[in-house]
Every structure is written in C-alpha cells, then in structure tokens.
Please model this.
Amino acid sequence: MLKLKKTLLASLLICFSVSALAEGKTEVLWLGQAAFKITSPGGKVIVVDPWVTSNPKTPEQYKKLEALGKVDAIFVTHAHFDHFADAPALAKMHNIPVYGPAGLMQSVVALDILPASQAVRFGKSGTVTPVGPDIKITAVRAEHSSELAWKNPATNKEEVHVGGEPVGYIIEMENGFKIYHMGDTGLFGDMKMIADYYKPDLILIPIGGHFVMSPKDAAMATRDFLKPKFAIPMHYGTTPVLKGTTAEYIDALGSSPTKVLAINPGDKVEF
Model:
C-alpha cells in the first residue's frame, strides 16, 4: 500500500511538473545583430551567435559578458566575427561547450581557440540535447559562407581558416514551442521543407540585405515558405551595408497573418 502511494505521488509530481512547463514562458532577448539569449520555460539559458562586447547595437548594459548571467549552452551558426566573436570567452567563463558546424569546431580545436571538450561538432539534420532531453536543437540549412578569420599569435598576421558550412537552428522548448534561428542566409526554396517538417512557431529572420536576405526576400520566405505565428527581424542596421528596415519588411509582407515583433536590441519578448 505504501509503495502504491509513493508511486501515485511520483506520478502526480511528474504531471504537475509537465503542466507547469506547459504553462511556462519562453523568453527571447535580442542583443543586436544575430545574438539572442533564449530562456526556456524550465529556466535553461541558450545563447546563439554571441557578439556583444564590440557590437555597436548591443545596449551598454549587456556589453560585458557577465551581464548575460547564467548560460547553459552556446550555439554559433557560422564562423564570421559578428556571430562567433564572444563565443570562446563566454564558453570559458561558464565552463561550457560551444556547439556549431563541424568544420568550424574542427578549426577551433586545431587553432587551440578552445579545447575539444568545449567545441562540439555537429551538422545539418543533427540534433543535440545539451541541457537535457526535453530541449532539442537541430541544425538546418543556411545559404551563406563561413570563413574563420584568426590572428596568428606567432606571426601577428591575419589568417583565414575553414569555417565549415553555415547553419540555422530549430530550437524546441520543453513545452514544444519551436524557434527557428535562421543565422545568416539568403533565400532558398527548401525553407518550405523546413517549415513543413519542423513547423517553427517563431522565426528570427535576417532582413538587412547585402550579406543576407533583403526585406523583400525575407517577406517572401515568411509569407510563402515558413508561415510562422511570429517573426523577429534581425541582422539589419548594424553596418551601413545592412540597409534593410523592419518597415520595408512589414510592408513587403502585406496581409500575411504572421505577427512581426519589431523589437530593439535589449528588448525581451515572452511566448
């Protein structure tokens, strides 16, 4: 009888825990460019593409890595400075790994930027669960490049190394809410396949143009391919060539039912 009561109590606690997670919120904090701090309903913190210390769009209160608080996992979409710059220091600060494209992480280890234990390689369609089995991060296709620029300390000269292939990430929370961080990407037709298969609720979408989709391209990706409930524009206005604006993106979307959240760096949104 006592064993039955303990089993029943354990089942009730599990049900309560699942219910609490289902009612919890996912918090998304934009730090400028493609840098985001994402807090899951269960309190796990994932940082994607950390470039904050020298990012002109990052608010002053987040310029120091300590200001990000607890971090449980770091992901980078590709090797370019404005996505990778602060990842090694943040990983060392919290003694956690950086997850990213296999070729990039191979170079990171070979160049002794991070040890192998802190540079986790994986590739497109690969899924990892670094903060427990209930949060799944899957790498998906992105149309971009990924060169790793590195200053050789022995020669003091700039070098360019293999950065692997760029990716985006599908981040699934404990309660099933899905975020598609698109990384840096151009428009491609298989975005529709990503939408049909992964069904993201929120997209973090680049709109700046020049290196990534323009507002018009991003609108087509949103309206015709991805069709998410929510979209947060990113990767615009940081440098002069990233000329795309949220107003242009919203105008190009037309009557799309997607709710665009045109937030500013430093703003938080809950879902």
About this structure: The chain has two domains: 24-135+149-167, 186-260.
